[in-house]
Amino acid sequence: MIGIFDSGIGGMTVARAVEQLLPDYSLTYYGDIARTPYGPKSPQTIINYSIRNAEFLLEKGAELIIIACNSASSVATEALRKRFQVPIIEVISPAADRAIQISKTGKIGIIGTKATVKSDIYRKTITAERPHFKVYSQACPLLVPLVEEGWLNKRETKMILRRYLHPLKDKQIDTLVLGCTHYPLLKELIQARIGKRVTLIDSSIETARYLKEFLTDNPEIVSRQKPVRHSYYASDCTETAMKVAERIFSRPMELTVA
Ligand code: DGL
């Protein structure tokens, strides 16, 4: 079974992409809604929470774990890989690799939470492969609460986005990584504000594609049980979380509190 965790519900964008791309695999999702958001927290706190989340999934029988949260991927991947035996897949490298493939000018923009931007992980990953590339990062701390409030098409959200994206537009980037699990829900607004010529990279889709390739190369890692089961757990269940979850999946969701 594939285990997926996030700081809350945003990682469901990754789970949905995995459900669609790998329909023959069972998955178990854990959203740490009780402790969300991770984005403004310190690296050590995010590492401690991530270890607990991974332990939960391993108890449920996970044979591989996806850290479906950019903030946790940025700071906790190494700690989880050291501690646990199962493969740990993060969301940064798949998105960074795609950005490298797509960018023609070598000018790449990154938007994410404070934790992700502060870690500088996207720039480090991209320039390790392409030292001459320029990577410009912008923390967008107001976007997660706006998505969680369901303010997806409000004037205020558009204004805030314009303000966050302005410096990246000035740098004439040709590729923009949506480095946070919530941002795919704002894709159309972001595209309209950054301009049609900029290609958006959705880390949830890139991670699901990466996982598919990984499982094709390593088919023994995750067993395929019949019937396929998709189980969704969370450390708390709020009305806001359920609304966002149902918006992501476009179907009624059942979330078990554990
Ligand atoms: N899941 C987080 C991320 O992708 C966003 C929400 C949070 O800050 O916890 O960075």
Structural notes for this entry:
The chain has 258 residues and is of the alpha/beta class. It has two domains: 2-90 and 205-257, Rossmann fold (3-Layer(aba) Sandwich); 92-203, Rossmann fold (3-Layer(aba) Sandwich), CATH 3.40.50. It is 48% helix and 17% strand. The protein has helices at 12-21, 43-59, 70-83, 92-102, 114-119, 121-129, 143-148, 155-170, 187-194, 203-217, 239-249; strands at 2-6, 27-31, 64-67, 88-90, 107-112, 134-139, 175-179, 199-202, 230-234, 256-257. The strands form two sheets. The protein has a six-stranded parallel sheet with strand order 4-3-1-2-9-10, with helices on both faces. Helix 8 crosses helix 9. The longest helix has 17 residues, at 43-59. The chain is globular. 48% of the residues are buried. Residues 6-8, 10-11, 36-39, 69-71, 113, 116, 144, 180-182 line the site of D-glutamic acid (DGL).
